[in-house]
Amino acid sequence: NSIIGARYTSQAADKDVERIKNDIGLTVATTYLQVLLAKEQVKITEKQMELTKSRFTDTRKRVDAGQLPELNALELEAQFARDSATYIAAIMTSEQNLLTLKATLNLDAATILDIVEPPVDKIPVERIADLQPEAVYQIALQTQPLQKVNDLRI
Description:
The protein has 154 residues and is an all-alpha fold. It has helices at residues 2-64, 70-104, 133-143, 145-153.
């Protein structure tokens, strides 16, 4: 019985290694997606800043011509300052997420690393409406190493 128990413990340890590999892959994928999201946020805030600047320039011309009160231009100038602060924060978040990805990959912080954004149409995605929760659960029970570890340890 001790020998059989030791075999099960050994098999459970092997499956535990698989689980840890899956966890590492999931962590890297999550960090990569955070970097992608941060880069998109930078683009969005940059566009917002450009839009506000354009509106401010147009409003400033109208204020100088006497069509609008000075308050309108000042409000847009304040909005531009807020947008600039948001832009700087988005850049900092992007850089921080990139450093986190480097740390996750165990790379030196000085290593030059830039990620490539995959074309959206090339990403295989199953429709959520087509997924059956019970089928997904059964597949997870059969394929996930953690479930196998638990079965072996029992």
